[in-house]
Amino acid sequence: MSNPIAPWSAACLLALALAACERAPSPAPETPSTDAAAASVPDALDRPDAPPPFDAPEAVPAPGAIGWAGFGSAAFGADPEAVRQAWGRDLGEAGTSEPGGCRYLVPQPRGTAGDRIAFMIEGERFVRIDVRAADIEAPGGGRVGMDIARIDALYPGLVERRPHKYVEGAHDLRIPAPDGGRSVLLFETGADDRVAAWRIGVPPQVDYVEGCG
Q1: Of 55, 62, 133, 168, which is most buried, counting CB atoms within 10 Å of its CB?
Q2: Overall domain count for the chain
Q3: Is residue 167 in some structural domain?
Q4: What is the pLDDT of residue 112?
């Protein structure tokens, strides 16, 4: 005679087993170790597109540091040490070693594309700033790369246009200090009528076409 309870018991056991499987939590995913996570992120210095560790050649003055009176706390006529303190970083020297001669203080390290900004010293006095970088603004808003029309608009009624001493078709745009001071702002354009460089300082040094050459 068959046992009527056996099929029911087997069915119950099967149902309980299935329910237990549904309730059992899935194993937590493995968390990578700190070392493994770090290894998955490449070191910035190993990436070919990473910026260089130092940006000194690209350093620019704080907005407004270059003014009609000089550079920051260093007024035109100050000694070289005042310029070094106003810049606040390393300034090397370029030019003559003759006592009292003309030379430049230049931010270090010097870039391979040429000096972006330089401070002229003559007679042991700070007399001029030379700029060849488009991201450094002159007093009044002028910049390298602007055309003559833009310079005229920024300094209305103040621009004296002179032919360049050496470059045919180029010009010097000479602007006296609007406050009546001694300093002069001078933009050099190329034959394309765009500003290639500018300088600000006091006469006669601001008009030296060859710099300290």
Answers
A1: 133
A2: 1
A3: yes
A4: 73
- The CATH number covering residue 73 comes to 2.60.460
Residue type, 40: S
Phi-psi group of 46: left, alpha or beta (phi > 0 → left; psi -120 to 50 → alpha; rest → beta): alpha
Q: Is residue 89 part of a domain?
A: yes
pLDDT for 41: 31
Give me the mean pLDDT over the 65-91 stretch.
96
Any domain includes 7: no
What's the pTM value of the predicted model, to 2 decimals?
A: 0.72
Q: How many residues appear in the chain?
A: 213
HEC sequence for the chain: CCCCHHHHHHHHHHHHHHHHHHHCCCCCCCCCCHHHHHHCCCCHHHCCCCCCCCCHHHCCCCCCCEECCEECCEECCCCHHHHHHHHCCCEEEEECCCCCCCEEEEECCCCCCCCCEEEEEECCEEEEEEECCCCCCCCCCCCCCCEHHHHHHHCCCCCEEEECCCCCCCEEEEEECCCCCCCEEEEEECCCCEEEEEEEECCCHHHCCCCCC
Residue whose entry in the numeric block shows the structure tokens 């000096």:
115
Please tell me the distance from the alpha carbon of residue 154 to that of residue 106, in angstroms, as a whole number: 28
How far CA 211 is from CA of 40, 114, 166, in Å, comes to 53, 14, 13
213 lies in some domain: no
